[in-house]
Every structure is written in C-alpha cells, then in structure tokens.
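Backbone Fold Data
Goal — fold tokens
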Amino acid sequence: MGPLVSEEQLNRVCDYLESGFSEGAKAVVGGKRHGTKGYFVKPTVLVNTNETMKVVQEEIFGPVVTAIPFTDPAEAMRKANDTIYGLAAGIWTRDISKAHRLAAQLRAGTVWINCYNIFDPAMPFGGYKQSGWGREMGRDVLELFTEVKSVCTPL
C-alpha cells in the first residue's frame, strides 16, 4: 500500500475516518495514519456502518472500505446504489453468474469481480452519476479528443 498523493488528501482521509467514528463506525483493522513521515493511512475496514453515514455516502479516495451487512441481493443493490456517486464497485462471490447479474444492476462505471483496483489500458474507466463524465483508457477515451458539431438549416 503506497502513500496518499498529498498532505491535503491525508488530512481529508483522516477526517473521513473521524467522521465515521463519531457516527458509530468501528475499525476492525487500520483506522488511522501510519507513522509520522509521508502520507500513509493504514488500510482500514469499517464496520457498524449504515448507508446514511458520510463514510458510506461519499468518495474517500483512500484505503478505506465500509462493510454493511445485508440479507438478500436486492437489499444489497438498493444500499449500494443509494448514493450520488458511482465510480467503482467490487463483488466477491463463488457464484460468477450471480456476480454478473449484480454487476449489471450496480450503478457504477467499473465493477470488479473477485478482485479490486485492476486496470487494463483497453478497458474504459470512468464513473456514473456525480463520479465523472466520459471515460479514460480504452477506445472510449477517443471521445475526449473529438468535438461533435450539429448544423441545421431549413431547406
């Protein structure tokens, strides 16, 4: 696990952790800065979370994952999609058919199955909702370098 990009991002991630703790979340691992030099945060798993918490609703961009229990896949989809963001998601399961059904329902630009944060230059990357417009990488990135013009005239 590498460092965060800046002191500003380190402080932002630590503020998210404090927000989660103040709302009742508990870190089962990590939960704080690592060391005093550099911009390191210990990889963190937060439990006792719910979909109304800031750490669940917002994009942290740090080594933090929130775990929310669910009883059926429909409930999991409702909880996962109940956010204004949708950059990426991860599914872990032994049932690959179920994973693909769930991936189709997730409102996220990238869905990893049984892995996370894996990138391929041929695979487009970008978010849904307020997690961005357009795509980076892959053939879809070419759209960023074009300008489409429509011209209309009555005949």
Remarks:
- Strands lie at 26-29, 44-47, 64-66, 85-86, 88-91, 110-113, 128-129.
- The CA atoms of residues 86 and 128 lie 5 Å apart.
- The mean pLDDT is 91.
